[in-house]
Description:
Blueprint: E1 10-16, E2 22-28, H1 32-38, E3 40-43, E4 69-74, E5 80-81, E6 89-97, H2 108-121, E7 125-138, H3 141-144, H4 168-172, H5 175-188, E8 192-197, E9 203-208, H6 214-234, E10 237-240, E11 254-261, H7 278-289, H8 295-298, E12 320-322, E13 329-331, E14 341-343, H9 352-368, H10 395-403, H11 406-411, H12 414-432, H13 437-443
Parallel strand pairs: 1-6, 12-13
Antiparallel strand pairs: 1-2, 3-4, 4-6, 5-6, 7-9, 7-10, 7-11, 8-9, 11-14, 13-14
Amino acid sequence: MSDMYEGNNEFDLFITDLNGNLRGKRMPSSGLKSVMTQGVKLPQSVIGFDHWGDDVLDNGMVFETGDSDGLCLAVHPEPISVPWAESARDQILAMMYNVDGTPFYPDPRQILTRIVKRFKALGYTPVVATELEFYLLDGQSEAKRQPSPPIIVEGNGVRLNKTDCYSIEEMDGLEGFFAEVRRACEIQGIPADTIISELGPGQFEINMKHSNDAVQAADHAIMFKRLIKGVARQHDFGATFMAKPYADKSGNGFHVHFSLLDEQGINVFDNGTDEGSSLLQQAVAGLLNHMSDSMLVFAPHMNSYRRFQNGAHAPTFASWGYENRTVAVRIPESDNVARRIEHRVSGADANPYLVLAAVLGAALHGIETKMSPPQPIEGDAYAMSERFELLPNRWELATESFADSAFLRDYLGEEFVRVYGAAKEQEQQKIHGRISNVEYEAYL
């Protein structure tokens, strides 16, 4: 960090826990130089909190270790301004290490970093782009704990309560909001590209530009989710990346596009044909083979599984095809030099670091073992459901597949499987321990 740096009054330092929630400290600017050079200590157990921020005693990181500290070090050379904050503030994204300086592998950013290094050892660099969907909400939605579409004050003052996919007029009515999103992305170095009005009322998708740094691509996704919520509050809206906020409307997806470059910068998925290279086929096979194992990463919460319904643009089977949006793994139509894979399973509520680690890890395993995929699907994959194994469609089933996965233990790590699995089991116990209103309505 430059000695001449003149920052804001405060800064937030945060790491990303396994659920994708940000955990850290808000500190005065007087401590900035020390934080940037020496880091900040936080309990390692923070990484494995459940969704509500409670300790998970079964993960082996609390009492067994004396709830020992890890060292959180900044991942960027300078703090980043938070332009939507009410008072001047910066933010520092960090990654956790053991206190001896070695990687702490339950940290999701460390897990993805390790996967990228395995590609590098083979002479490949993943090139990644992400697509995140979210809903804008009425400003009272968070307080009421009930989603409601926003009212467009800049337009005709009507509530966005109908689907208007790809509507430019809908975005015109939110011009001030999206202009502020663009400005905040530029300030924070987030490579936002196209903005699309999606299938739900008040639902939008913002695509990121391709990056040859997969870890940085996940950083941008994490920062973008925080940015959207912050800018929304500034405009008296709410925003959610919840997988399925409305039972009868489109869910929020998180699609991942990726290709591989060799050491000469050549896309190894391109062989001059529309079908792509043998390496592309092997990567696809790995993705299909380990999709069930990784569903708890792609769909981490109870609500996540409401996305997976036939005809709802969320895949329910491990299938693939060319220029086909009914499959789980799509090969988009493109120029040969841009030949790539699109993974269409994850929800926007998933942790971007873990999603990229699971996707890239499965592709890597397919390449390393030279797997072969089945024939690609032409037409409606939902109509061919009898040909495929159903992906885990309930939280508990996904947890079982996750716990039994040798692939995840090998590629994402034993510690990760233990700690993440324990958090999910605790979350399930908490939710199933509560009686819902629908049960009272039906049975009381």
